[in-house]
Amino acid sequence: MTEPLTVPRSSATREIPGRSRARKGEGELLRDEILDATEDLLEELGAKEAVTMRAVAERVGVSVPSIYLHFADKDVLFYECCRKNLVELTSRLEAAAAGSGTVVERLRRCGEAYIRFGLDQPGQYMTLFGTDIPDTVDPEVAADDPGRRCLGVVVGLIEEGLATGELRVDLHPLAAAVAVWAAAHGAVNLLLTKRLQTDLPVEMPSEEEVISAVVDLSINGLTV
Fold it and tell me: Going by C-beta distance under 8 Å and a sequence separation of 6 or more, which residues neighbour residue 17?
């Protein structure tokens, strides 16, 4: 549920102690600071439900109304955090896909990069899968959601592998990409659960062993 803005517009620029009034041209910098603070709180608290607009404002050193000058509501703030993280994830996948090696080798690097991304920032990662595109987001912004680019990296590699004969000819690129994504996402969830529950009823291998096994098995299922 979003936190409605209830203060008058005239108080939206009110500063709180510890921060001077932003100079002209610093609005974008403040917006970035708000996003950074939200991401930090997500990691510290583990869930977006635990992060309040007041906590974000206190972390940045501004009033709550100041946040609403940059983000229409709490849902938009979290969505923009998701966009920022998806851009970073896409950059990692694009770097892995653009490197040297066969399609299979590059797919393997993409899988490893994806899983490590989720393990490096669990709070932000889980927020990605619990945040819809809010109705209050600009339709043009929503249409350019970076999640499509992220999946497109893997689809492109699979299409390349089909063209070069490295992958099975019966594969549908999108379905195969989603299957690889599902395996990687499952690995992230499992490993994060292991971190939180040290008394699991079964013995678990190390994170590196799980990453290697999941990536190898999912990629080997695509090969000739």
Answer: none
Q: Please tell me the distance from the alpha carbon of residue 21 to that of residue 24, in angstroms, as a whole number.
A: 10
Query: Are 107 and 206 part of one and the same domain?
Result: yes
Decide: 152 and 103 in contact? Cβ < 8 Å.
no
Q: pLDDT per residue over 134-186, tens digit each?
A: 887 888 887 888 888 999 999 999 999 999 999 999 999 999 999 999 999 99
Residues with Cβ within 8 Å of residue 138, at least 6 apart in sequence: none
Please tell me the predicted confidence (pLDDT) of residue 202: 79
Distance CA 125, CA 118 (A): 5
| CATH number where 208 lies | 1.10.357.10
Q: pTM, whole model, 2 decimals?
A: 0.79
In a domain, 210, yes or no: yes
User: Phi and psi of 207, rounded to 5°?
Assistant: -60, -40
Say yes or no: 99 and 152 in one domain.
yes
